[in-house]
Specification:
The protein contains 5 helices and 6 strands; from the N terminus they run E-H-E-H-E-H-E-H-E-E-H. With 246 residues, it is an alpha+beta fold. The protein folds into 2 domains: 9-124, no CATH class; 136-198 and 216-236, no CATH class. It has a two-stranded antiparallel ribbon with strand order 1-2. It has a two-stranded parallel ribbon with strand order 3-4. Strands 5-6 form a two-stranded antiparallel sheet. The protein has helices at 24-31, 53-59, 92-108, 118-124, 228-232, and strands at residues 9-11, 41-43, 64-67, 112-115, 163-167, 175-179. The two termini are 34 Å apart.
Length: 246
């Protein structure tokens, strides 16, 4: 993503707005720009790092200023002597003047501003994955990788327990589940052997620490329903009915 490219790229956009700030000053800064609906946007990746409007505007004829964030430090450019000010946890009072100055300078030089800020990136990396306990033949084929190996019909796993059903009870509303019954099933694994653990693996530090998944505590929340009469019976208060093994 961050490899510097010397080839000029052309972006045709119907709507190109910068509405990341609820601030009247920034709205005023952008209000005098030419309507982007009738203008080709021409720019160079990372052109904003060194400034050089003489090369960008006069020599190359581009009208888009672009800059990736410097990890969690947001925009670090020649505009502010490479100082860190727009970092992820910065208060508005700490960064707004620097950001406004860049947008204003770009505008005065006849350039649009394409921002890629740490505060915005942080919101992009929130993740959640839902894995299905029922066998893969009951799941949308496009989501086979969200199922477990031991639920397959041909699975040799002798410790598999429970029955794959469609729960049409008043509580189930037709969802597909694995039902385990103390009267029928022996203790064993409901699910194990996730088929594709390809998520929660972002590890590109240059995106910023907030984008590196192993910096966080991940929460595993099994979705289960237990017979209320069993739960409410004091005799069963210390009984183990579910165990997670890592």
């Amino acid at each position: 993503m961050k490899t510097k490219i010397t080839i000029i790229f052309i972006i045709c956009i119907t709507v190109f707005a910068f509405r990341f700030f609820n601030n009247s000053e920034l709205a005023e800064i952008s209000s005098s720009l030419t309507d982007p609906d009738s203008t080709f946007i021409i720019g160079v990746l990372e052109s904003g790092a060194e400034g050089r409007y003489d090369l960008q505007v006069d020599s190359l004829g581009i009208n888009l200023w672009h800059r990736y964030p410097d990890g969690n430090n947001g925009w670090r450019t020649v505009h502010n002597n490479w100082a860190a000010f727009d970092f992820t946890d910065a208060e508005y009072e700490e960064y707004h003047e620097g950001v406004e100055d860049i947008i204003r300078t770009n505008r005065d030089s006849g350039m649009y501003t394409l921002m890629n800020r740490g505060k915005i990136l942080r919101l992009c990396f929130g993740q959640r994955s839902d894995y299905q306990c029922e066998k893969d033949s009951m799941v949308d084929p496009d989501y086979w990788f969200y199922t477990y190996k031991n639920r397959d019909n041909l699975s040799p796993d002798s410790n598999k327990t429970g029955t794959d059903i469609v729960d049409n009870s008043v509580f189930g509303n037709g969802i597909k589940v694995v039902r385990c019954s103390t009267l029928v099933d022996e203790p064993g694994y409901v699910v194990k052997g996730l088929k594709a653990n390809r998520e929660q693996i972002n590890c590109i530090a240059s995106w910023g620490g907030k984008a590196v998944d192993d910096n966080y505590i991940w929460h595993i929340k099994p979705k289960i329903r237990v017979d209320s009469t069993f739960i409410k019976n004091p005799i069963n208060s210390q009984k183990l009915f579910l165990k997670l093994i890592f």
